[in-house]
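Table 4 source record.
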Amino acid sequence: MPVPNGRRPVMLAAVIAALVGLGCVAAPDQPGAAPPAPVETPVTSKAAGPDEDGTDSPEEFKADIGDATEIAEAYWSGVFKASNLEFRPVREVIAYEREGEVDCGGQPLGLNNAAYCSDGDFIAYDVNWAFAAFQQVGDAFIFYLLGHEYAHAIQLRLGIQKQFTIQQELQADCMAGAYIGDMERQKRLSLQKDDTAELAAGLEAVGDDPGQPWFAEGAHGTAKQRTASFVKGYRDSLDPCDL
């Protein structure tokens, strides 16, 4: 998918299901906030060998983290400028390796997790989990992960606080879709043939477990709801995201 700064084109992965349950953290003193907790994300191991789209080295992983952060900042800076608003980038993107190495408002972040923490204004991720998913899924994992978590930072900057977690999460999915779709239209990212169909198919596998109450704290939405939210943003930009 992404072709940032003239780097080699890469393939958008079909296994966006690895993103199920991205950790999303609000400051502990905010209404509706939930303590951060480890989020199990099914990333299976694979045999050693070159990845199909070349996404198999720590150097490429680090470069993609930097590119995804830079492009997210450029995207939201443009959106804010168009609305005559001052944009403030997320303060820091932090990689961690051990449970409790990074905390949000005094509460430790667990493994197999990625989160935006409003108390400190940073995005943090378990680097071993993210790198394993990067190898399994491809570069698209990084751009979606950063897009989704950056959306939570934008919600905070705009003062958006939904009544239920699911509303906050589906909006973030829509915003992530808008970020990817708009940057593709601006030629900052590019998609390979059939990648959008593969992304939609992958998102079908993302969703809360059957029987999860929609009003439960931490609910992200069903597969259909998350897919619909992402696709609306991807196709129609931020208009359907209810910002």
